[in-house]
Task: structure prediction
Amino acid sequence: MANQRSVFANLDGLAVFFYFALVLVGLMSVYSAVYNPDRPMPIYALSTFSGRQLTFILSGIVLIMIICIIDYKTFEVLAPIIYFVICLLLVGVLIFGQNVNGARAWFDLGFLKLQPAEFAKIGCALAVARYLGNGGAKVTDFKSQLALAGILGVPIFLILLQPDPGSTLVFSSFILVFYREGLNVIFLVLIGVVALLFVLALIVKVVYLSVFIFVIAVLYFLYRWQIDRLRRQKMSNNHLVGYIMMLIAPFILAIGFVFSVSWIFTNVLKPHQKERILVLIDDSVDKQGRTTRYNLKQSLIAIGSGGFTGKGYLEGTQTKFDFVPEQRTDFIFCTIGEEFGWLGSLLVVCLYVGLLSRIVVISERQKDPFARIYGYCVVSILFFHFTLNLSMTIGLFPVIGIPLPFISYGGSSLWGFTILLFILLKLDSHRNKLFS
Result:
């Protein structure tokens, strides 16, 4: 019993505090989002979403206890097996899963729906940490880059087949982990360029964009050629050919990417997926009924109506009259913004910043590479979820179904984030023993 108490006592107190604070905010927000003043129900009523969320929280505490009891070495040893099992679940959900809103992403177990994609992030985090933490792999080696692409590529492909673009996008957060482990910053720049080209491909005609890319390529070519000429004083034919290839190759790749984005947007994406993207760049995309533009407008109205201090708990009119669809899940932040205003929203943001900062501190103090890399996987995943959900809620990013960690309603997401975080806290509680 003394050993068990010491295990819980060694958990990082600040991280645990931030976790339970966010979970409590989530429970209160879910209750408020579904609160009916004409038929008020207690927060613990199992017939309500808040009651079920409370059940998820309590079962999450059981998961925390199990994680704390398990030997800390188990997570590294079983990382490949955990990854393999989760991949099998992703295959299984494509065959046996329930189709909801055009996506086959949930197992319907009767008493609950389980979404394997939420646990795939845990499997990938453990697998990446195990691969990079063994000492023989480096993110700067091409062979290791291919292996890491394979580790992430399998679940990404399976989740795309569901399809669930929101969950797929979160896996791009691992680029931050690779950057921390030594990946050249040029990869981050390339990702930014790709994102910019993606947006431009949607709002600018392909012909005009192609000319623009060509001009940029020529200017860059002239700049590099002039720098090299000044250094060498004389330019050989081989150098000239090399610079011409340096101009042509990126140009062809960029143009190919632009045309592929245009083709995929036109021929592959479903109408509701196109609308989620266009609604951010074209105000005319607004149809009758509860469309993406309607959802976004109501979200902004709810947050803006809260003012500085908010309307008060359970007093939000946008929330009370169900103006914002999916408010207990994707748009849960609207409830906080309307009822607690700018101050309440800032407090929630500060809780997230506090948790993310604490995870970085925890990760940096690890002596074992596996624990350090896993810690950065955790903070990267949480950061992407937090950033994308808030950006989606205030209209800076397409509505793609990204839950707000620990706050949005849902058992799979809450359990997934809980397991993800407390595996790290378990490893951290034994940080002085990892090399023993």
Remarks:
- Residues 332-364 form the longest helix (33 residues).
- The chain has two domains: 2-184+276-429, 196-268.
